UniProtKB/TrEMBL annotation:
Protein name (database record): Sensor domain-containing phosphodiesterase
Domain EAL: 23-276
Residue range from the parent sequence: 334 to 610 of 617
């Protein structure tokens, strides 16, 4: 008995050791990748629902690994968050996004840009001053930038979170609640938090084709948001039916594969040329 148990523990420890090592390796590679400039932003268009006009983009991170090729965010963001590397990554993303935005703005193309901000980064000390400083250095007006955060932020101390929202707003940034409706504190945001926009999760958008009651939820969210003076963005639009339904329900902006997947900048410029003419 004792023997088996000891064997079990040894095996368990060895497995934990391997996991911890893999974690450490990935964390090291993340930092190295950042230093070696292996990260890039893809951009997905955001379309004004009522007019079809191109309003701007969401910047989404990609890791182009020299050996593994393109690594999607879900394969590195969680670890980047738990280790804190996400802060450096998102600062880099803001710089890259601002550089691109400046190029567009200098050419008279006044696009908006949205970036994802992890809860950990949002709640970190001095984040507002730091991000405002980056934007100022890059010569971009904060009014064109939105930070998308997820509802998990709301699990924190409310007063602290509210003060953060206010600080972002005072700098001229907008705040959007991403994946709206998937967390369990959704309505707390609407009641107490000074935000600008909600981004309705695609699970509510993509039921519209085959589930007649599915629309009821989206419709209610849109009406509620409008009553509170919040902008609504619908993501994950893949079909013309979904587009038409959401337009008639009064959503403000739309995003999804129907318009375009997230694209690297050169492909995006081609897409813009085709879309705008
Ligand atoms: P998200 O912020 O909810 O971004 C939307 C995701 O849905 C993107 O996946 C996008 O490619 C995908 N998507 C867009 N339109 C459609 C559609 O019509 N149908 C379907 N099925 N999917 C669509 P992606 O680029 O793989 O990003 C996944 C997640 O990674 C993002 O979800 C976001 O949570 C996270 N992420 C990406 N960049 C960053 C970042 O800089 N910081 C943080 N904290 N998270 C990031
Ligand atoms: Ca997002
Ligand atoms: Ca989302
Ligand atoms: Ca998401």
């Amino acid at each position: 008995d004792r023997h088996v148990q000891r064997g079990g523990i040894a095996f368990y420890e060895e497995e934990m050791g391997e996991k911890a090592t893999a974690r450490l390796t990935l964390e090291m590679n993340l930092r190295k990748g950042l230093a070696l400039n292996e990260f890039t932003l893809y951009y997905q268009p955001k379309i004004e629902a009522s007019t079809g006009k191109l309003k701007g983009f969401e910047g989404l991170m990609r890791w182009i690994h020299p050996k593994q090729g393109l690594i999607p965010p879900l394969d590195f963001i969680p670890l980047a968050e738990s280790t804190g590397v996400i802060i450096a990554l998102e600062e880099w993303a803001l710089e890259a996004a601002c550089r691109q935005l400046k190029t567009w703005h200098d050419a008279g193309r006044m696009y908006q840009l949205a970036l994802n901000l992890s809860a950990r980064h949002f709640l970190s000390d001095g984040v507002v001053e730091k991000l405002a400083h980056i934007v100022k250095e890059m010569g971009v007006c904060p009014n064109y930038l939105t930070f998308e955060i997820t509802e998990s932020v709301g699990m924190e101390n409310q007063q602290h979170v509210i003060e953060r929202f206010v600080a972002f707003r005072e700098q001229g940034f907008s705040i959007s609640i991403d994946d709206f409706g998937t967390g369990f504190s959704a309505f707390v945001y609407l009641k107490h938090y000074p935000i600008h926009e909600i981004k309705i999760d695609r699970q509510f958008i993509q039921v519209t084709d085959n589930d007649p009651t599915g629309n009821v939820i989206v419709q209610s969210i849109i009406e509620l948001a409008r009553g509170l003076g919040l902008k609504t963005v619908c993501e994950g639009i893949e079909t013309t039916d979904q587009r038409d339904t959401l337009r008639s329900l009064g959503c403000d902006e739309m995003q999804g594969y129907l318009f375009s997947r997230p694209l690297p900048i050169d492909e995006l410029e081609t897409w813009i040329d085709d879309y705008d003419t």
